[in-house]
Request: fold
Amino acid sequence: MLILAVDDDPDDRGLFLEAINRISPSIKCIEAGDGDEAYELLTNTMTVLPDMIFLDINMPVMDGKTCLKLLRGNDILREIPVVILSTNLTERDIRDLSNLNADFLVKPATFPKLVEALSAIFISGGFLR
Reply:
């Protein structure tokens, strides 16, 4: 399995990648620091597309919502499952994200909770048995 982790905070990305490794060392992760970098990777650099994208909502350069809109507007990328990550989501965010066919995850406060939440996403999506 290949995932793309997009977050402008390198500490958050590191924690996320550590949690993914704890869930399954066989999951390969590619990183991007903002939506613009992620979209560039997906459209011009990557030869194999990820099975899932984890996308922070609040980032400079290109935020998660804007990136998600571009993904959903691209015939090749539109079907990739996207999970929006944030420390806080408003009701409007949740409505907008649902309309763009994305799931969301409020970043858990502890590492064990992050591992638990990510495991549930992979299991419910059929990526882990």
In short: Residues 2-122 form a domain with the Rossmann fold fold (CATH 3.40.50.2300). The chain has five helices and five strands. Residues 10-23 form the longest helix (14 residues).
